[in-house]
Amino acid sequence: MKLLADRVRPLTGHRLFWPALVLVLMIVANTIYRPGFLAVEVKDGHLYGTPIDILRLSAPLILVALGMTLVIATGGIDLSVGSLCAISGAIACLHISRSPDQNSLSTVFTALALALGAALVLGMWNGVLVAVIGIQPIIATLILMVAGRGLAQLTTEGQIITINSGPYRAIGLGHFLTLPLAIFIALAAALLVAAFTRRTALGLIVESVGGNAEASRLAGIRSRRVIFLVYVVSAACAALAGFMITANVSSADGNAAGLWIELDAILAVVIGGTSLAGGRFSLSGTVLGALIIQTLTTTVYAMDISPQTSLLFKAVVVIAVCLIQSPGFRARFRRRHGGAVPGPAASQREKEQVPA
Amino acid sequence: MSSTSLTTGRTGRPSLPRRHVPVLATLALLLVMYGIGVSQYRAFSNIQVVFNVFIDNGFLLVVAVGMTFVILTGGIDLSVGSVAAMTAMVSAALLQDGLPAALVLVIALLIGPALGLLMGCAIHFFDIQPFIVTLAGMFFARGMCTFISDASIPITDGFWTAMSQERIGNPAGNFVSISVLIAFAVVLVAAYVLAYTRFGRTVYAIGGNSHSALLMGLPVGRTRIAVYTVSGLCSAIGGILLSFYTLSGAPLIAIGMELDVIAAVVIGGTVLTGGSGYVFGTVLGVLVLGVIQTLITFDGSLNSWWTKIVIGGLLFAFILLQRLIGIRFK
Predict the structure, then answer these.
(1) In 3-state terms, what secondary structure has residue A42?
(2) What are the φ/ψ torsions at residue B189 (nearest 5 degrees)?
(3) What is the distance between the alpha carbons of residues A42 and A40, in angstroms, rounded to a whole number?
(4) Is the CB of B257 inside 8 Å of chain A's CB atoms?
(5) CA of A276: which chain B residue's CA is closest?
(6) Most A CBs within 10 Å, among B79, B140, B150, to test the A interface
(7) B146 exposed, middle or buried (CB, 10 Å; 0-12, 13-18, 19+)?
(8) Which of A269, B41, B89, B213 lies 20 to 30 Å from A309 when distance is taken between CA atoms?
(9) How far is A328 from B63, CA to CA, in rounded Å?
(10) ipTM over the 0.90 cut-off
């Protein structure tokens, strides 16, 4: 028995163990509840089925959560991503809807470039507020969260812009190698971010800034520039997600597009094991977290529960994950079970928060 | 409002205490906006316009008062809008089931503080960030709303309709609703508590430097839990006022209200890092938001989404102002 525990410990100690376990448990529960859950079939040379749907629908969330991971790794938070999704989707759809040939590739690419450019500018705005002026990230991005919805509605003039563009639709619903294109886009983004952060020193720099911005600055890292940059990256990711969300429904709704995606993204990041206090991050954990949330959402829909009520389940998940992650709670739990794990060392890991 | 005398200059020259600058800026902004309104639209000078701002924003005011407590300690409460909606929803559902109004009021007023207490405990005992705990609270409360009912529940109870329709006015025909009086009562109690009680002092002390407060022997944990409970109570009262206002409980009501509330508190001059601010400022902040709405309604050609952009712009201006003051006096 003791031997088994010793063998299992390295496995349970892996930071991706708990999220992966949750995902597996959810899939198992779903399969028991609905035996056809895992069935995947080929139709017109494309794969169809609930697992594929979950992957496709989680693509925007993965994108947003990737940017959010970097922001949170620096000890910040970006509340404006939902609004940015709405703005970028609105600008792209507006441009396409006004062009004579909605199906031309050049139109679609111009639209994407315009929208991405706007998102980058707004990302820079966030970056300036946090890195240069030194406003708390929650509040700095709250401004764009509030005003951004207004801007999105201003762009669409309060209407829902519908478009009929094949190439644009492909971003959300197209297929490549029998799988939805959206999955590849999200995967490419994830690999790109991973390559930049894990194959170069950039990731380490981001973590050091999140650990202690002032110390990093004294150590010769341009903390402000790094912080500025993560908000721009986050905005770019949000813009891509905005394209997918609007392409899925071939319309841009300034009010509803990307609504509450920032909360889902933060949740995905937290579930993935990235500490909200910053200083370390796990991209694979984030992707796993996003998949968990999308599976949860899909499960709740499949059980005929209204989308709003799914929030109830999300609340339970957030609290459970936070409690498990909280050193205080773990220490208490272990003490009760008579474990000799030194709790205080973990719980005393306090950090100096420095406004960059 | 509270300890002005502490920082007044000794030189005799009337110097402006820096912590009053944001509140005075808000007051100036409010007066300018009202001035613009009066100069542009004749009907704007009608005193009922001001009363309507209060009638339409009474619930916002109460919730904002609770948020002021939380922000003064340096925390944040994202659950307020959902808790208000949940309170309205629970009241509507219970009334529909035929429970007496008094009992419904008691139950509705207990749920909010209970949730706040739980959130405060999670924040204090398990050292989880307020942001994420109250986010979960927001999810929970909003989920409960639709769990109770997917559709809007009308309220036909006699007490509720009486509270909703009662007009308290002067002979000239101007009036306010009972909600406004309740909101004022909450404001006065909160202002008194913050300015003159030990609890209020502790709230400011925690916001100034929670570590120092702890070393001074102040009950930091208890107070921190208490402010989230107070915020929950204010959200619950706000929810009741909301149900008076709309005479229904709707699952999607007050979405995004937490942002309006935070904006109101910040525009009212409360510093987000905690430790400085007044309930009076929050009242002004709510008035600013209300007058923006009224101006945009009066204009007619501007669409309602301009409200969000203007609120965002103001939020930016005031945070910048606070930041600049903070840098200058460092």
Answers:
(1) strand
(2) -60, -45
(3) 7
(4) no
(5) B129
(6) B140
(7) buried
(8) A269
(9) 31
(10) no
